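ARCHIVE CARD
Drawer: 12
Card no.: 0347
Subject: one protein chain, sequence and derived structure
Cross-reference: see card 0346
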Amino acid sequence: MHLILSAIIVLLAIIDVIVGVGFFVNPAQAGSDFGLSTVGNAGTSALRADFTAFFFVAGLFMAWGAWRRRGELLLAPLALFVIAFTGRLINLLVEGSYDDWWIPMTVEMVHIVVLALAIRAWPARRTGL
């Protein structure tokens, strides 16, 4: 169970880091994949900085937590995906649906479920990092 959970988290982490690299290298293209467009340098800068940070922090802490099997290292990525899912849910209720709205919500929910299972399975340790 622990090995399978670690493998799933590492796979998700790799995907997240790849998405982050996409935003870092080509924010306009990566943004368009998410239904976003840039307006000048400020928009490009926001996509490059904010989305890269989101996916890098999530992916790196997920990989670290899976490698060490330390649930507390997964709290930050769990919080990121819970907030993202909640934002999408609120948007769905307030603004309505759009084509393929369920895909990003499903991806986020998979992250949430897997991370929550790992946090429950891997207790926090009181030793150093």
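Annotation on reverse: The first helix runs from residue 2 to 25. The chain has one domain: 2-121.
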